[in-house]
Amino acid sequence: MKSFAPYIRRTTVLLFLSLLPFVVQAQEVEWLTWDEAAQLAETDEKPKKIFVDVYTDWCGWCKKMDKDTFQNEEVAAYMKENFYMVKLDGEGKEPIEFKGKTYKFVPSGRKGYHEFAAALLQGKLSYPTTVFLDEEMNMLSPVPGYQKPKPFLDIAKYFGDDIYKEKDWKTYSGQGK
Questions:
Q1: 59 contact partners, CB below 8 Å, separation of at least 6
Q2: What is the dihedral of CA 46, 48, 49, 54, to 10 degrees?
Q3: DSSP assignment string, 59-105
Q4: pLDDT truncated to tens, each residue of the chain (177 aa)?
Q5: I want to staple 133 with a disulfide (CB 3.0 to 4.6 A). Which of 17, 50, 149, 154 is the partner?
């Protein structure tokens, strides 16, 4: 009786090799710490805008947005090209320096919150919330809630391509009609 092991092995190898180009082409989001992004914004010859994903470990919609939106090939490529991307735990414990002030963790309720997250979210601690900052680290806008890839990309391009300087959001998004 013949052994099928060599055929199975060969088929497995061929299948793996045929799928390899799809794995290699996938865009990976390069998440930075706040300090890394701030350093790049100050030292790069042509700094990018900063995008901050404010999340918590317990937030299911945050995890869904990570998987569905930020891993989307088109979203990942656009964001990598136009933004320094920061992951910020809304309940993180490490102090953060920003514009001469030190922001810290504040114990409150069952968990607490980070003062920097509260500042970026303008006191509305809602997760996920994404925040767009310009090249000088000035607030452009917080965007609360889960965003699917296409609507998120529209928002990202509104800020990333400087459309916000010429049109208000309602006009750009077609809501002003």
A1: 127, 128
A2: -140
A3: -HHHHHHIIIIITSHHHHHHHHHHEEEEEEETT--S-EEETTEEE-E
A4: 556 555 555 655 444 555 544 444 455 678 999 999 999 999 999 999 999 999 999 999 999 999 999 999 999 999 999 999 999 999 999 999 999 999 999 998 888 999 999 999 999 999 999 999 999 999 999 999 999 999 999 999 999 999 999 998 888 888 765
A5: 50
Alpha-carbon distance of 86 to 129, in angstroms, equals: 12
Cα separation, 139 vs 123, whole angstroms: 14
Please give the radius of gyration of the chain, using alpha carbons only, rounded to the nearest integer: 21
Tell me the helix, strand and coil percentages in the chain, rounded to 5: 45, 20, 35
pTM listed for this prediction: 0.81
Question: Which residue has tokens 């809304």?
Answer: 90
Cis-peptide, bond into residue 128, ω within 30° of zero = yes
Helix (H) and strand (E) counts in the chain: 7, 9
